[in-house]
Design goal:
215 residues; alpha/beta; 5-stranded parallel sheet; 3-stranded antiparallel sheet; globular
């Protein structure tokens, strides 16, 4: 399947993407994960992106498009992909449209996951992430703690609170989302690609997507 997952930070895009990869081997492409990996590895991209990310600002479109143009041409994308956290601005969506046309890729649909802001705020404040850039497993101290406190079940690395998941940064990320990313729903509605799914349970969202795709 070839999908874009839209939704505020904390709406469950990453969890839903991981569940969908298990269905047909499509790959999850999270620009946030790619950027965090680059920051930890200390690459030029990471150095350029870090300040924006720590403040909860968006990284410039040109950096993101450079990453995605390469990523979408990697062989594992041939089976399908789930775009998680990209596009995030109208210019990114417009450039992606041109890139897809150039690469001969046709999207199945764009799914907007709609979750109330108070649920999202609470989820992000209690979210913890494995600091190993190759793992980045997600936990939640309330609803999905690791078996051993502070240690990742999957790889044994420390689990940390992301720098952009303090209350101030989260508030700013949600405002940025409303201003820059929420308008993408209108963009894809006009393209006839948008399906909005309201639900706080990832199982409900995944089942709705499977139904839309006839799986
Ligand atoms: P995420 O894990 O998707 O919430 O992304 C974490 C941070 O990475 C965001 O707050 C942005 O600073 C940056 N980021 C991720 N994806 C994008 C994107 N498509 N455009 C601009 N910045 C992005």
């Amino acid at each position: 399947m070839k999908l874009i997952l839209l939704g505020a930070p904390g709406a469950g895009k990453g969890t839903v993407a991981k569940m969908l990869t298990a269905i047909d081997g499509s790959v999850q492409i999270s620009t946030g994960d790619i950027l965090r990996g680059a920051v930890q590895a200390g690459t030029d991209l990471g150095k350029e992106a870090q300040g924006y990310m720590d403040r909860g600002d968006l990284v410039p479109d040109s950096l993101i498009m450079g990453i995605m143009e390469k990523r979408l041409q990697e062989p594992d994308c041939a089976n399908g992909f789930l775009l998680d956290g990209f596009p995030r601005t109208i210019p990114q969506a417009e450039e992606l449209k041109g890139l897809m046309a150039k690469l001969g890729i046709k999207l199945d649909m764009v799914v907007a996951i709609d979750v109330p802001r108070d649920v999202i705020f609470d989820r992000l404040c209690t979210r913890r992430t494995c600091e190993n850039p190759k793992c980045q497993a997600i936990y939640n101290i309330k609803s999905m703690p690791s078996k051993k406190e502070g240690i990742c079940d999957k790889c044994g690395s420390p689990i940390v609170q992301r720098a952009d998941e303090t209350e101030v940064a989260i508030g700013h990320r949600l405002d940025t989302y409303n201003e820059k990313t929420a308008p993408l729903a209108g963009f894809y509605e006009k393209e006839g690609m948008l399906r909005t799914i309201t639900g706080t349970s990832s199982d409900v969202v995944v089942n709705a997507i499977k139904k839309e795709l006839g799986l």
